[in-house]
## 1
Amino acid sequence: MNGYNFAYLDEQTKRMIRRAILKAVAIPGHQVPFGSREMPLPYGWGTGGIQVTASILGANDVLKVIDQGADDTTNAVSIRRFFAATAGVRTTTRTAEASVIQTRHRIPETKLTERQILVYQVPQPEPLYRLEPSRTESRRMHGLAEYGAMHVKLYEDISRLGQVAISYDYPVMVNGRYLTSPSPIPAFDNPKLHLMPALQLFGAGREKRIYAIPPYTDVRSLDFEDHPFRPHRARAVCAICGADQSYLDEVLTDDRGGRMFVCSDTDYCAGRAGAGA
Amino acid sequence: MAYVAVKGGERAIDAAHAWRAEARRGDPAVPALAVAQIENQLGRAVERVMAEGSLHDRELAALAIRQAEGDLIEAAFLLRAYRTTLPRFGASVPLDTGAMAIRRRISAIFKDVPGGQVLGPTTDYTHRLLDFALLAERAPDSAPLAEAAEGTMPRVADLLAAEGLIRPDQPGSGEPSDLTRAPPAYPAPRDARLQGLARGDEGFLLGLGYSTQRGYGGSHPFAGEIRMGAVSVVIVPDELGFPIDIGEIVLTECQMVNQFAGSKTEPARFTTGYGLAFGQADRRAMAMALLDRSLQAGELGEDVTAPAQNAEFVLSHADNIEATGFVEHLKLPHYVDFQSEVEAVRRLRATAAAAAEPVA
């Protein structure tokens, strides 16, 4: 695109962001403050993820962008077009073909590999913010690994409701040290974070934080011995591909209670449907 | 099948943009607005967009207002997104507002002050009656001319300071911080707070400033001085080493003078709150000055109890580009999270129903 650097950001800014990424990789799960830039897309639309992607993208990369697991949601289309225009990189909807995958709210069903990077858009990087709104205070709590408040919250859920009532953005302990927000992925996706071969980078633009989960890092969803973490999905199979292990969207089909379930991961679903699964 | 996978995001976006462009232009029978018209005749809007967009460029601000169809937050966003791509080749030396070419200068704390009270082009004493004559184009009568004031007008706060009645500003720590380059850290130094306030949303500043007047962190303010006029911008390029005047900008500066009874560490005297804004912007500069003062509570040993005294609260929520983005992002699809919530609610209801079953 005329008048703009490769992938929009100037090289100095990319270097600053890469330094933050390196630090984040060195301290898994720790939120690294960075000089987040104003982007031509609004805050909340993925400015953090876009800055991370812009900083790591090379001319030979193949980019996939998903929102809610789908390649064809409007925001995914918009971000994919942004990089096609500013970086001219090849884009794809195939999970296996992509070298960089930017995502909002899902982890692809297809297992990722060591040669892939998963970039998450993060609205709220601070896992403690509902319990402690002051980031000055929550930084101190992270420094001291003082996470009792979160365990108490889970305990209160179990004692009142019989189960933990967090269904997405379910907090995890990364590398046994930092309590971390996995971004608002459904808790169903949490097990995929654990020992993932791909590098996972998290960008929060408005909150000006970057954090990372390096490949093969231990990631545990918070739980108790007598109340182990359990991922949940709708008890149904995909109406298109018949998948019974994937995360499903519930689609209302009429105003008389008609509904159907389909895979949220459109590439996974299309691949299975095409293969005659 | 009743459900057809939604493919069409791309076409929908293109069509939406085309419709927006058509709506923006409005009725083609009505002449299009020229950017110069906005720049000249909607000056207050241009100045607000420059302040919140953090970029002094009247023409680009006017262009942004037209492109945004008069949505000033959207216009500031357009300006910001452009600003972020600009190289920064230097910082000016501190502006000398004492040497301002005064158009307006009033003090509420003295009947008269050296240099006099100058109302300038204010609406303060207009009666807010819709002027139906403006429906028809009509050139206004020319305003009467007065002799320009001789020399510079001393700042009122400086007059009080000479008597030792005002707590002097504490020196900053070298290079000013820049929120647009480095993430904010708390406790935020005053320069960072002032920068955050200077680009903050006018409505937010106004509401929070107002809250201090209603008892939420009261600071007993007086409008020590409000002055508006053109100020020279001077830079010292590294390769030249001497100052160069690169032009002038119009600013409104407000110094609030606040009662301060003293604390364990400070004698009783007046303290000040400072506000500075592009163009003619009394409201903005005054609200900013109220907040600058209330945010000094911690440093002055006052109790920090109200939102307007909490720098983390104020600065984290003052930026309307951040705020509008995060509020409006709720319209992006969230159906995956919502689905997990639906499943969770069904599970919780099933658990509760099972518990309520009478034991046979």
Note: The radius of gyration of chain A is 19 Å.
## 2
Amino acid sequence: MEGASYQRFPKVKIRELKDDYAKFELRETDASMANALRRVMIAEVPTIAIDLVEIEVNSSVLNDEFIAHRLGLIPLTSERAMSMRFSRDCDACDGDGQCEFCSVEFHLRAKCIGDQTLDVTSKDLYSSDHTVVPVDFSDSGAGYENPEDQRGITIVKLRKGQELRLRAIARKGIGKDHAKWSPAATVTFMYEPEIHINEEMMETLSLEEKTSVVESSPTKVFALNPQTHQVEVVDPEAYTYDDEVLKKVEAMGKPGLIEVYAKEDSFIFTVESTGAVKASQLVINAIEVLKQKLDAVRLLEDTVEADDQFGELGAHMRGG
Amino acid sequence: MSFLLSLSCGIIPFANHDHAKRVLFQFQKHYQQAIGYSTTNPSIRVDTLTHNLFYPQKPLFKTVLSDSLGTPKHSIGQTSHAKHEYYNGQCAIVAVNVHLGYNQEDSLVMNRASLERGMFRSEHVRSYKAEVFNKESFGKKDKAEDNTVFGKIQSKIGHVDKLDEDGFPYVGASLQSGDIVIGKHAESGSDYSMKLKNGEKGSVQIVLSANDGGKNFATVSLRQVRSPSLGDKFSSMHGQKGVLGFLESQENFPFTIQGIVPDVVINPHAFPSRQTPGQLLEAALGKGIALGGSLKYATPFSTPSVEDITNQLHRCGFSRWGNERVYNGRTGEMVESLVFMGPTFYQKLVHMSEDKVKFRNIGPVHPLTRQPVADRKRFDGVKVGEMERDCIIAHGPTANLYERLYTLCDASHMHVCRKCNNMASVIQRSVPRGPKIRGPYCRFCESVEDVVKVNVPYGAKLICQELFSMGIAIEFESELC
């Protein structure tokens, strides 16, 4: 246990960064770290979401629970979430979770008067805190051509005479408790592939066979150089490890013509955010949360007395 | 050709690839049990029991018959777009894989995040109806006892806190089992209230009081919203039913390179013996359609060929046979084998575990046998019969068996005379020069000398007494301990 140091210095290289999208490389670490980061991004980075709804009037076609559920899923801008408190351990309010440290209040009042159907959307939600508002998708470059599409997220549609009036309280939470608190739309990574072509063997193939090898991959990984008629790897990262090429090569009776290895220590991450936090911030927050969790483990190790209560288990946890 | 099939059968994709038994299964049983969205006015209807799916979806594939569904809107001279029918299911991303053994024996694993985002959420409305005596109606004689009216009185049978003075709960009140739904009493004061039975609960959606055909009646409907829970039943379009075995978190599922995580994981053992390759074809075709492929029809008997489907997937940048490389969600390692994944139309069936759970510790018993009464609405338990008992014996926990079946259930005692080995009943007798005493007494030996108390199950005691009453005496050999 003692002596050997497993300390590594992972490197991050950012490839692409947008508000709700990030693509980066993570190198010189292993799958456990990469996956820990992914898991934390999905399930443990805190955001703010509507958690409690008091309905005053609801004469819409959807029932109260339906509307409450829809409200909960609306992403709210959550830059403040990391510094906010969980309402369950907030000292300022006695557990009812209605103070400035742990909650944000929303109001919604809508009534359809005209003959046209009225869409009640996330833009109709009035927040008591200007830093926590429903995410505005109009400026994220999604390219809406029709200004009508920028109306936010539809909650319910009202016809003439129908009314919806409610008060909602948004709280901090994590994706583990409910998916509505998950800031991640997609978080995924892939091992960086290393593709080797056995040139000698490739030369023995006819042009037709080469084309069939190139086309056997559903993604554009290989290409046939029009001048030299050589098979080249144009985009190794397009390879999805689907084995289609390997199967093709095997079927042709040329095993080993193309070999693919996954680099065990480099990963290409793709992160898409719901808009609650920026994709870049999501990664940073995830690292922060991960650090806090590791600190908790380290503190446990420091206090050997505390381990007494765990008995044998404590010794086991120390690696004894 | 496809119109030779019925409505429900004609919208099964690739029905010609499935075993006929499975197709029959699907459209006879599962299709009518599936929860859909059957009406456009659910919030003002008072059906005895209705189920509505929150977010019904249209399947990705089409069949010639499904195109004919829905009411066409007739505008002058031309028919514009048909109004689409609400389907009774949702498109789930289904992976065919084992998942920690939680999808054995036709159970399935679902993604909790998907459910929390509204997948297979449904509302269930149950109505309660009560009638009262109509004063204006003629022909009936006035009997004070029958003169029932709606109203709130302090009831002995249940809680009336949620009722208004008129005897009805307010709209939005959350009623639990044991509460009164409709307060009703006779003018004499006797209580005729309607109570929620065990397992019935919900919040009040409609309160209606009306007069129909000379009868005054009132209806209260209760609404309940349910997200899938363990034990709920689901089915694909190919007679592949299964119950929910585990709710797994999103991050623990295997994920593809694009970050796709399955909503449902089913066991590969469901396929070989059932002979339903139609479901796999549906998933493969569905995947191609979701990626923007041009093949859209899966009409039975004119389905696209397997080659067309695989080529479409290949064109869309996916593995021909619908397999995908996944990473283990727990460790982040690449999974050695490829996993078949694709969008499949799944239905939630009305059989839900919440309506079927049975459990009790104490509750009402039958007065004669002192055994629990058999009715789920009356806190029925699960019967441990002979075979169940044999299983427990086979596993060896005899002390537990003794405790469950005897000490906590059926414990009783009786008296036996050790001289004549007959049962000694407890009687009241007079002793010379003393007060009357009550206790066990052997009528045969006319003494209390050798009477002992033995512990027996109540059932055993009962049958001895019943036999005794018919003139058959049973002898008991006893040993002191």
Note: Chain A is about 25% helix and 30% strand.
